[in-house]
Amino acid sequence: xxxxxxxxxxxxxxxxxxxxxxxxxxxxxxxxxRAQRNVVATRPYAQSMRQLIAELTGRIVGTxxxxxxxxxxxxxxxxxxxxxxxxxxxxGSLISNVQRQTGRFILEQNKAGxxxxxxxxxxxxxxxxxxSGQKVVAETMKLGDAPSLEQVLGVAQAALARVQTGEYSExxxxxxxxxxxxxxxxxxxxxxxxETPEASGTPRLDFTYEPSQEELLEELLPRYVETQIYxxxxxSIASEHSxxxxxxxxxxxxxxxxxxxxxxxxxxxxQAAITKEVSEISSGANxxxxx
Length: 291
Known about the structure:
- This protein is of the alpha/beta class and 291 residues long.
- It has one domain: ATP synthase, F1 complex, gamma subunit (Pyruvate Kinase, Chain: A, domain 1), CATH 3.40.1380.10.
- The protein has five helices and five strands, in the order H-E-H-E-H-E-H-E-E-H.
- Strands 3-2-1-4-5 form a five-stranded mixed β-sheet, sandwiched between helices.
- Strand 4 and strand 5 form a beta hairpin.
- Helix 4 (149-164) crosses helix 5.
- 27% of the residues are buried.
């Protein structure tokens, strides 16, 4: 059994860890609430954009889609993959889940004869892909807790430029989807060719578009994809802080449980030492009495 002094030192150390993890939990909780507000604030714009794209794609058929991000590029065997991860760890299994989804997608594409080139937001995803020997075309790190659209556009436009030149047949994105405070799940979505959104159930209005519907759709589709990427980055940030808050809460609970166990061990060791001393004193007194 460890000495009483060593046990006391371990108890102090564990209590210090519990204080740190508790502080990190509170910080993450505050950041999570702000990140949730950012996600909710972008949804009306994204929804309006989705409805407009659905309206335009429903009116335009045939050659009107040619040369846009709706068109499939069958000649290219290259696929772009955008990976969104945090810059820091200590957020439970969130990062490993995204990495597992990324690895699974790359293996599936390689089996199908496609070459995957990657684009990353966040240090953890970049490091994982570099270790795996994957080509990272563009990267962005240190976005902060509330990135602007301009901070996200660099990587997004780099991926879209390769689609518009016919280099990529598809572009996908993998990120952590924010469901609620306790649930964050890895999501894989195809960005290009753009999947036509479902139109709402409301009757169509006969708008007059200037310039033409085809020109407007060609201009709006890249903005629509950029909005989806921006939304994915915001959801990933909210997921990161939620996962870190839960992980730090669990770590604080575990540290407190360990401190209680060590305190019990310390009390037992101290009681055993006292019992031993009393026994020695009693044995000495008995020896003197017999003498």
